[in-house]
Amino acid sequence: MPPPRTRGTGLRHRLAELRGPEVPAKALDARALAALAANPGCRRRALLDGAGVNKAALAGALGAPSAFGQSQFAFTRGNAFEAKVKADGGAELLRLVHERLDRRAEPPGGARVPELAATGPAGRTARTELALREAAEARGEWTLLDHPMLALDVAGSPAYLEPDAVVVHPDGNWTVVEIKSFPMLDGSADPAKVGAAARQAAVYVLALEEAADRLGASGAEVPRVRHRVLLVCPKDFSNLPTAAAVDIRKQRAVTARQLARLTRIEDIAAALPEGTCFSPELPAPALTAAVESVPASYAPECLSACELAFHCRARSRASGAVTSLGRSVRAELGGLSTVEDVLSAARGMSGDPDDPAVAALRRAARLRAEALAAKEAVPCP
User: Is there a contact between 91 and 310 (Cβ–Cβ < 8 Å)?
Assistant: First the structure.
């Protein structure tokens, strides 16, 4: 008799079935997690990301491809800039950390750069946590972790994340470093890009906090994860690195709250019909039915954050859902979930007159009718 399957093993097997036979899992990165946290009500994205489904390939198979992602030129430029920042054992990077975040510490004359290679994401995570423990215990030294691997629990499933760098200060505390290729002009960068970087860094900080908790559970002294991260960018129009300290406490709190609201992935998977699969190799009708079996929460903001946005937008418009008009509009309309319901309430054909949303719609319809009547009454010159 075979041994019983554990809960974790059963979930991994189920998620592998959802991806399709022989389809490798796509890693969930901090950018995707930040976007997921911004829309915690979308079960479709939570399940597809948790299962490691390649949403770009899925969107193409559904006939709604998206030009979502970073260009090859930007990717190459970013890698070249990161290599420059980390050259010579990270000397320039550590100088910027000391200058912007920790002037009280001894200037870094050098740093420990531990080897973090291991087999698989789980192995790399364990190796990273060992290096963090050793660095925290080696007080008085600077340590640079280049592309460590961190694990963050997302809706009951681990997500493996790879920040650009984590620096361990001489006092044993940890700082996340984000290296971006967009310029910092006269000491400031594009606020939208800085905000996106801050949200990604907040995800890394949450993962580091989980690692710190695991160290504390094993009896080690719990280090402090700093909530001011270092954002490194090219200075002006050069390729020289400069940096700014970014306080991500607000982004961290919002991301933690939103991730906590996510429905557990195993609960979403359990509600699916037997045999559901999201393999791009399936016929289009079967694939469409599989995707539509998972509820989505589309909003225009998805267009800049999710590969399936064009498919979900088409479905949202076809059903007349008011979410296609934006979250702020949806919030104002209360229990009216479709455009048809909104028009019916505005015309007085349905809805509770005491409902503030219904009352506002009827008043707006009345004012519009009066304005049109006044316009028609004005004689043409």
Answer: no
Measure the CA–CA gap between 34 and 160, rounded to whole angstroms: 14
**Residue 348 DSSP class:** T
In the numeric block, which tokens belong to residue 214? 């695991």
The shares of helix, strand and coil residues in the chain, as percent rounded to the nearest 5, are 50, 10, 35
Task: Classify strands 150-154 and 157-161 as parallel, antiparallel or unpaired.
Answer: antiparallel
> In angstroms, rounded to a whole number, what is the distance separating the alpha carbons of residues 350 and 231?
53
Neighbouring-strand partners of residue 175: 167
**CA–CA distance from 316 to each of 59, 63, 297, 301 (Å)?**
15, 16, 9, 14
Task: Report the half-sphere exposure of 81 (CA within 13 A, side-chain side).
Answer: 23
Select from 294, 336, 333, 288 the least CA-distant residue to 314: 288
pLDDT digit string (tens) for 202-251? 999 999 999 999 988 877 778 889 999 999 999 998 889 999 999 999 99
Distance CA(259)–CA(263), nearest Å, equals: 9
| One-letter amino acid of 180 | K
Residue 175 CA, chain-centre distance (Å), reads 20
The pLDDT score that the predictor gives to residue 169 is 94
- What is the distance between the alpha carbons of residues 310 and 291, in angstroms, rounded to a whole number? 13
CB 161 within 8 A of CB 200: no
CA dist., res. 72 & res. 63, Å (int):
23
Compute the distance between CA of residue 83 and CA of residue 164 in angstroms, rounded to an integer: 11
- Residues 88-114 have pLDDT tens digits of 999 999 999 999 999 988 888 878 999
With a cut of 70, say whether residue 189 has pLDDT above it. yes
Rounded Cα distance between 86 and 92, Å, is 7
